[in-house]
Design goal:
single chain, alpha/beta, six-stranded mixed β-sheet, 16 strands
């Protein structure tokens, strides 16, 4: 049986309270439209200069996560708090952390971004997480009544081994909240999402940020819902939007039954290739 998903395509600023208010508004709108799952984009809580990240970092019990838990419980939905700046064990660096909540407000999963973004844009603007963020090291999947979910964030999309690891755990749906830039997004965004969907025969749900940030970075928008055949079920434009679609995990099983590529995955070879060798 299918259900409705809603991706919140937001243009996030540097005022946390304003950002949380905007998130609450779009969640309310999604629920009114019948969404059972709402997903917010990467760093929906704060976008600003890296020098301000530490001051705006929180814990899993802080105001942002508390608000998201409250909203999930209030509306009885699954809610992906796309990602927020989480305090780390290192005083000068943060974590980029995604939290998935259940309809009772419980925290079902926490994923910390593994692959950290660094790019120099044509106008000279440098966008980098590497010097200011602690990378995560755990593949995260979670079983729910809607299906088995895998969690990832933005730049992770360029590293297919993460998604293959999720598939080997039996995921049906992958969440990929993002702040993908226009510079790379115009060429790579849809390509990467469709590739991850096709090679692992999963749904890809990717809420992206949109518009120009206070840092000068232009985000691409075009939030996507992609099915396990690689078909785009819904796509945003380049501004704030609510992107919705109906998905059905039964379609995942049907695709895998008709095209049996995943049965041919060489798990033994993956293990061999991942082993450290010398000589």
């Amino acid at each position: 049986m299918g259900f409705k998903v809603a991706l919140a395509q937001m243009s996030v600023g540097s005022d946390r309270d304003e950002n949380l208010s905007a998130a609450e508004s779009v969640i309310t709108q999604a629920v009114k439209g019948g969404a059972k799952l709402v997903a917010l984009p990467e760093v929906f809580q704060f976008v600003g200069d890296a020098s301000l990240w530490i001051a705006n970092a929180e814990t899993l019990e802080g105001p942002t996560c508390s608000k998201m838990s409250e909203l999930a419980r209030k509306h009885g939905i699954y809610l992906l708090a796309g990602s927020f700046l989480e305090q780390s064990e290192e005083p000068r660096r943060v974590r980029n952390t995604s939290v998935f909540y259940g309809p009772d407000g419980s925290r079902l999963a926490v994923y910390r971004k593994m692959h950290l973004f660094e790019v120099t844009l044509p106008d000279g603007v440098v966008f980098s997480e590497v010097d200011h963020t602690v990378a995560g090291d755990e593949v995260v999947t979670v079983e729910t009544e809607l299906g088995r979910f895998g969690l990832s964030i933005c730049y992770d999309l360029r590293f297919p081994e993460l998604y293959r690891a999720m598939m080997l755990r039996g995921v049906d749906i992958v969440l990929a909240p993002s702040a993908f830039t226009a510079f790379t997004g115009k060429d790579h965004w849809k390509l990467l999402l469709r590739a991850r969907a096709v090679e692992n025969q999963v749904y890809m749900l990717a809420p992206n940020q949109a518009g120009r940030a206070v840092t000068g970075v232009e985000f691409y928008g075009h939030s996507l819902v992609v099915d396990p055949w690689g078909d785009v079920l819904a796509e945003g434009d380049d501004g704030p939007a609510l992107v919705t679609a109906e998905i059905d995990v039964g379609h995942v099983a049907d695709i895998r039954r008709r095209l049996t590529a995943l049965k041919r995955v060489r798990r033994d070879l993956i293990k061999k290739l991942s082993e450290t060798t010398s000589g």
